[in-house]
Amino acid sequence: MEEKRYAQNxxxxxxxxxxxxxxxxxxxxxxxxxxxxxxxxxxxxxxAQRVRTEAATLVETLDTLESALTSGNPETLRxxxxxxxxxxxxxxxxxxxxxxxxxxxxxxxGGDVKVVRTLSDVLLDVxxxxxxxxxxxxxxxxxxxxxxxxxxxxxxxxxxxxxxxxIHPVITRSVETVNGLPTxxxxxxxxxxxxxxEVLTSVDETLTLVESGLELLGAITG
Length: 222
What we know:
Blueprint: H1 2-9, H2 15-70, H3 74-95, H4 98-103, H5 110-136, H6 143-148, H7 153-179, H8 187-221
Helix pairs in contact: 2-3, 2-8, 3-5, 5-7, 5-8, 7-8
């Protein structure tokens, strides 16, 4: 009787139950991880589609930026800058989440992800620290406004020189960053990189000439 009672009280009968519960927990964790990975991949794909669409829009806007800068029309310039700002902000917000940070380390797509994230930083920097100040002082780029206020043209030129000196370093550092990026695989991202490089390089070269010309003109006028 004592041996039988000892066998019934032995913990060995509980081992299969514990192992069974552990297996259920492990399987549950694996299923949860697979589901989380699947959801993350889906969300990243949807986000990437939005970025690609916005990138295509931004390429079109950048194509008109140079003409807007030289149009002498403050409203056209402000409208174009606002579009660049909106697209740059959208891409930046989309690519700054944890999913995109992790995606940088994925094979085959990690390189493009890094390019997109860097471009978004560059474009937001240009938008906030170069294009927005230009839009805020758009009248300084309008020959009509300068002529209409000819009596204060000396002060206007001083303001324009200050503006150019403020935005020129932003454009220069952006050109250097974009030039250092590899060529992306995706067409929309490659087009955005090329267009950004082309426009910013052209603006950088123009600002170099304008800055020298304005300093000379400022010395002559006053």
